[in-house]
Amino acid sequence: QYDTLKSGIRNLALQRGYCNGELTLSRLEVIPDLNEANVRLHYSSGIRLNFGDVSFIGNHIWEDRVASLQPFKEGDPYNVSKLGEFNQKLSNTEWFSSVFVEPELDRLDDGRDLPIKVSLSPASKNQIET
């Protein structure tokens, strides 16, 4: 449970845009005579990232129509759930056969703005539903 707790803290920080955080203190003290344990954790989150520019790859729809579905603006605090929401909104349009929204961590420089890449594949023009 101790390792699960530490992992949970790290994962929550990553989801909220704290990509450079680290546990600076991690101590577990077990007291068998009292049947108890003391846990000390210190987490240094570092700076919070913001959403950066969004690039579209494979888009055949007017970019402003696609961008209007975006649940965040450049400069908003990064939150991974917003990427999932954007992915879902794009998928629900049925304009695309595949949608993949991802942060571009390799393009992150010393700044705080995390670029986002949206990879899209057009849907078939002839769709028939029965």
Automatic annotation (TrEMBL):
<protein>
    <submittedName>
        <fullName>Outer membrane protein assembly factor</fullName>
    </submittedName>
</protein>
<feature type="domain" description="POTRA">
    <location>
        <begin position="51"/>
        <end position="118"/>
    </location>
</feature>
<dbReference type="InterPro" id="IPR010827">
    <property type="entry name" value="BamA/TamA_POTRA"/>
</dbReference>
<dbReference type="Pfam" id="PF07244">
    <property type="entry name" value="POTRA"/>
</dbReference>
<dbReference type="GO" id="GO:0019867">
    <property type="term" value="C:outer membrane"/>
</dbReference>
